[in-house]
Amino acid sequence: MAASATIQRTIYTGPFVHSLSLTELEICEKGAIGVDENGIIAFVEKELDLGAVQEKHSWQDATPVQLKGNAFFFPGFIDTHTHAPQHPNTGLFGKTTLLDWLQTYTFPMESSFTDLKRAETIYRNFVSRTLSHGTTTAAYYATIHVPATNLLADICLARGQRALVGRVCMNSDLSPDYYRDASVSQSVADSKASIDYIRSIDPKGSIVRPIVTPRFAPSCTSECLTSIAKLAKDESTFIQTHISENKGEIALVQELFPTSKSYTDVYDTHNLLTPQTILAHAVHLSAEERKTILARGATLSHCPCSNTAITSGCAPIRSLLDEGHTIGLGTDVSGGFHPSILENVRHAIWTSRHLALQSPLGDAAKLSTEEALFLATRGGAAVVGLADKVGGFDVGKEFDAQVVDLGSVSEGGENEGKFDAGPVDVFGWESWGEMVEKWVYAGDDRNTTAVWVRGRVVHRTARFEGRVVDGTATP
Ligand SMILES: O=c1[nH]c(=O)c2nc[nH]c2[nH]1
């Protein structure tokens, strides 16, 4: 589907659920969301029937999409940190932790992206896979290869998934000689070439944007970090990197940058901490580092599945939120073992509970369902610089949404005993609030039956067709 295809004015009726704030989730049982020809939300009604909505807004000619059954609209998920070329390794990490995991699994896989055919297969699959899990925006790390990085941007644009796409910079000898930038100048020139290409295919950055991506401090020499920070400034791009993920990594940073006060100080003294910087992990930051990050306005990507899988630790998200940090969720495939942000919502909650068991904060360290859903949507939108565009159903925002359909046991018949409507069983007596909780703790991609970005359908299943009346927007 071309991102430029026009769409029809559409009125989406049925329940909708979204975050109003970190702690408040709005559940509107009788919603109507009007989306104009540009994919912008023109109105949101909370009590009226379709006819009354059409009349009130003079939208009689709009296409109605009316949800039936135990289904609701939810904002598209935002994945603030993931590595598309690592997708074939998802679930493969054995007993490794970060530094040996990089050498054993990650660098060999990423280095193979000189092969564009292989890159295309993997990237197409990953973009389709993440869309099927309701991810409407992703901040992607690609590899050091310019052609494959550009191909990832092409695929995101063609599929209509919003993306920040970053060619990875890594020139230090932490990386094997078969997979590293030959020099600082090559690192900068290749990054610039990829920025230029991505801007040429989407000049307004409506769907894809470039992002400068120094892999992490140990992968880059001091000169490389400084040069790449200058490139980001000159080109006005976002920056993404990793920080304070694993204790061995932190010790290595201290060894490689002996005059720096801390991991955070390395980035700060190389001009890499800006309000457009996304820092992934942030598991073991000191109080002083947290203050510096907050003062610079850099944001955080919390990756709970990855932090557990490669045994990095439990990030203190509750405290970071209380301090005022801006935080989203990241799948961090393939340190993370799952491409779904929903999976990371529940793991954010689980890991906060483990932390609560050990922390002097006790229950105050726990994240609630509402808070985790906020991080997955509005929090992530703020991290990737799209807080004014996506993350909730507000007039003026773009319609990035998914349908969550839980099916029903009482429907029996064709679904009974087949379980193809997903792992959640709804018996008919649950409140909408209970259905949302059941989805958060047990749902999966079988429940995500349709997905839109800027009002365009980017993923749709056969179950969706059976759940709408009076027509649907076509891809
Ligand atoms: O989880 C991670 N995944 C990576 O690919 C990586 N590179 C540096 N640090 C990293 N952490």
UniProtKB/TrEMBL annotation:
- Name one process (GO BP) from the record: guanine catabolic process
Details of cofactor binding: Binds 1 zinc ion per subunit.
Catalytic reactions of this protein: guanine + H2O + H(+) = xanthine + NH4(+)
Coiled coil where? Answer: none
Recall the GO molecular function terms of this protein's record: guanine deaminase activity; zinc ion binding
The EC number(s) given in the record are 3.5.4.3
Q: Name one GO cellular component term.
A: cytosol
Which pathway does it serve?
A: Purine metabolism; guanine degradation; xanthine from guanine: step 1/1
The record's Gene3D superfamilies line, in alphabetical order, gives: Metal-dependent hydrolases (3.20.20.140), Urease, subunit C, domain 1 (2.30.40.10)
Q: Which domain of life is it from?
A: Eukaryota
Question: Which key words tag this protein in UniProt?
Answer: Hydrolase, Metal-binding, Zinc
What InterPro entries does this protein's entry cite?
A: Amidohydro-rel, Guanine_deaminase, Metal-dep_hydrolase_composite, Metal_Hydrolase, Metallo-dep_hydrolases
The cofactor required is:
Zn(2+)
Per UniProt, residues of the Amidohydrolase-related domain are: 74-458
EC top class named in words: hydrolase
Asked if the keyword Protein biosynthesis belongs to this entry, the reply reads no
Described by its record, this protein's role is as follows: Catalyzes the hydrolytic deamination of guanine, producing xanthine and ammonia.
Q: Which family does it belong to?
A: Belongs to the metallo-dependent hydrolases superfamily. ATZ/TRZ family.
State what protein this is by name.
Guanine deaminase
User: Which species is this UniProt entry from?
Assistant: Epicoccum nigrum (Soil fungus)
